């Protein structure tokens, strides 16, 4: 008997929570783990003038034989897991009549129910709908992750455009951003220029009908998002700097009205 069998009475556990109610992974673990073969030192039966004890060699004789130590009964591993008849002796109540073991075991292993259970155990995992579903879910997850990765790449190009225009202090929008326009504004023109040399971006702009990232609303959203990130970055830098100097610069227009102010920090 192994240490694991001493601690866990696997057969009793399966009787308490049947195989059919377990998850696919649990089932797979049970099938791969194989049948427990406890010694059953307490299983004995008085014969004619002697006491018959359970012989562990029976496990070799009957490759399906298993037992519950706690219940002190013999079971069929195949039927315990896969029998259609859930309440038979070998799959539910257990067998303990050692005087008739050979006869009962020989009869059991040729029953249709046992043979069916044997086939189900041997082929478990090969053609299971669960495993095919698992495979389908895995493929769908892969496709989804691939799409998320591509979309992130596209979004990166869009933000690069916004950062470039912002850095060069160029305007974004055009008066006419329609596809017929000869000048669609800096943002759209820069994007289409990049798309000439970038097949992914070109494919995205020419095929995506739901989100192209070119609408005025998206341009503004990107500007606000980038501004927010930059603001947070500046705050962190200020927080970590030992000294901060603030310099305010202003210009006036021809009517001597405050036109714009420029704020810079030195750290
Ligand atoms: Zn059986």
TrEMBL record:
Domain DUF4371: from-to ranges: 146-255
Name of the featured protein: DUF4371 domain-containing protein
Species in which this protein is naturally found: Solea senegalensis (Senegalese sole)
Lineage, top ranks: Eukaryota, Metazoa, Chordata, Craniata, Vertebrata
């Amino acid at each position: 008997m192994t240490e694991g069998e001493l601690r866990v009475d696997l057969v009793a556990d399966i009787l308490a929570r049947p195989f059919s109610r377990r998850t696919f992974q649990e089932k797979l673990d049970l099938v791969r783990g194989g049948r427990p073969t406890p010694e059953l030192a307490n299983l004995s039966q008085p014969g004619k003038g002697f006491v018959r004890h359970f012989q562990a060699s029976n496990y070799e004789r009957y490759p399906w034989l298993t037992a519950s130590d706690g219940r002190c009964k013999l079971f069929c591993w195949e039927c315990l897991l896969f029998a259609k008849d859930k309440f038979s002796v070998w799959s539910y109540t257990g067998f303990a009549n050692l005087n008739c073991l050979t006869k009962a075991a020989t009869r059991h292993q040729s029953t249709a129910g046992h043979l069916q259970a044997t086939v189900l155990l041997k082929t478990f995992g090969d053609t299971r709908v669960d495993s095919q579903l698992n495979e389908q879910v895995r493929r769908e997850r892969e496709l989804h992750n691939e799409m998320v990765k591509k979309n992130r790449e596209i979004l990166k190009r869009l933000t690069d455009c916004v950062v470039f225009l912002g850095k060069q202090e160029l305007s974004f929008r055009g008066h006419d951003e329609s596809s017929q326009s000869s000048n669609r504004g800096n943002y759209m023109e820069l994007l289409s220029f990049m798309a000439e040399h970038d097949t992914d971006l070109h494919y995205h702009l020419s095929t995506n009908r739901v989100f192209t990232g070119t609408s005025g609303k998206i341009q503004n959203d990107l500007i606000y998002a980038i501004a927010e990130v930059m603001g947070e970055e500046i705050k962190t830098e200020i927080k970590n700097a030992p000294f901060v100097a603030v310099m305010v610069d202003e210009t006036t227009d021809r009517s001597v009205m405050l036109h714009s102010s420029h704020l810079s920090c030195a750290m």
